[in-house]
Design a protein that fits this description.
The protein is an alpha/beta fold. The chain has 3 domains: 174 residues, Ribonuclease H-like superfamily/Ribonuclease H (Nucleotidyltransferase, domain 5); 94 residues, DNA polymerase, domain 1; 71 residues, DNA polymerase, domain 1 (Orthogonal Bundle), CATH 1.10.150. Helix content is 51%, strand content 8%. The protein has 16 helices and 5 strands. Strands 3-2-1-4-5 form a 5-stranded mixed sheet.
């Protein structure tokens, strides 16, 4: 590893990819880190030795730009491994979205489109924690960064030609948040429970409370949420709350190995949630636009679609429907401060379409 760091001593640009496993655990388990430059392809095995010091030195250096493709999961697994998130990111998926109508293109498709190379997809479902890795697995992992380094140069040249490099710089800065600890916002956990939206607000308070309890237990045991308690059981418990701790056994089968203390905590969680005042319960009602606002939304969407077509990018890259709805509602409330914080009203989007949208509503 020291030899690799020495060879990378003067580089300012590297391609990075990770392989990890999280099928049975709450936290992703880092299994492999791949690094590439124009002359180096390296697969670093964090299971074979303590790679943390070397990877910190390399990946936390803001003088080195790290190329990823769809970086969110890579950044999450590296955060848990390194304790910090790498900065100076160049995401090829985002770069491509600023050039074409493909908003969230996959890596293999992008490599084929831009480099004319078809990648082997046979190792996609590999358990990367298993050892030893086969030569085919190592080749697959290495290809992910070998072509990624080449992609960056192709995409960057196109961005420079169209004068959109500053757009990517803006998008890259939004990918990084020093305060991001990759923890789910607890106030929104009820939204992750499948089937919960059909319940009323008081029942949702029970769903929310159980979901928070489940989240903390999943973290403590490092198990997936569904291994702690299935979504359908949470909904059933909320719909027909048990009257005593023994009654919880009617809902929870042997798949969920809860001990007596955990069942007691669950029952107390439900009992407490039942007392939640309605005004403090989760609100699953949507902000609905009136007929006049719906017509304005239609007009704004047409403007966004037209501008996206002119730019040759996806309309979703300019603005989502949800963001346009927020813009209309904030405009009607004359809440300019919050409206100006929307993505559509900042940076390159403001210049391209945001100002036009704002003028249309005046």
């Amino acid at each position: 590893m020291e030899n690799l760091l020495e060879r990378l001593n003067d580089v300012t640009l590297i391609a990075v990819d990770t392989e990890f496993f999280r099928e049975t655990t709450y936290y992703p388990q880092l299994a492999l880190v791949q690094i590439a430059t124009d002359s180096i392809v390296a697969c670093i095995d964090p299971l074979a030795f303590d790679a943390k010091p070397a990877l910190k030195k390399l990946l936390l250096d803001d003088n080195i730009t790290k190329i990823f493709h769809s970086c969110s999961q890579d950044l999450e697994v590296l955060f848990y491994y390194l304790g910090e998130t790498p900065g100076a990111i160049y995401d090829t998926q985002v770069a491509n979205a600023l050039l074409t109508e493909h908003h969230q293109i996959g890596y293999a498709s992008l490599v084929e489109n831009e480099l004319g190379t078809m990648l082997d997809k046979s190792q996609t479902r590999t358990n990367w924690l298993q050892r030893p890795l086969t030569q085919k697995q190592i080749q697959y992992a290495g290809d992910d960064v070998y072509y990624l380094y080449q992609l960056q140069h192709v995409l960057d040249e196109k961005l420079q030609h169209l004068g959109r490099k500053s757009w990517l710089d803006e998008e890259s800065s939004k990918l990084l948040n020093d305060k991001n600890t990759y923890q789910v916002a607890t106030e929104n956990l009820w939204k992750r429970v499948k089937g919960a939206t059909r319940l009323n607000r008081n029942k949702l308070a029970i769903v929310q409370a159980i979901a928070i309890w489940r989240e903390h237990l999943a973290q403590k045991k490092d198990k997936t949420r569904r291994k702690i308690l299935a979504d359908e059981i949470i909904v059933d418990l909320a719909f027909t709350p048990p009257e005593n701790i023994q009654a919880t056994d009617q809902f929870i089968d042997r798949r969920f190995n809860l001990n007596q203390e955990e069942k007691q905590q669950l029952f107390e969680t439900i009992t407490s949630a039942i007392q939640t005042p309605t005004e403090q319960c989760p609100d699953n009602r949507f902000n609905t636009l009136d007929n006049e606002q719906k017509q304005i939304l239609k007009n704004l969407q047409q403007l966004v679609n037209k501008k996206a077509e002119e730019l040759g990018i996806s309309a979703a890259m300019l603005s989502s429907r949800k963001e346009l709805e927020k813009l209309i509602l904030l405009h009607d409330k004359q809440d300019e401060s919050h409206a100006s914080s929307l993505d559509i009203m900042r940076g390159w989007r403001l210049q391209c379409i945001g100002q036009q949208l704002s003028n249309t509503m005046k």
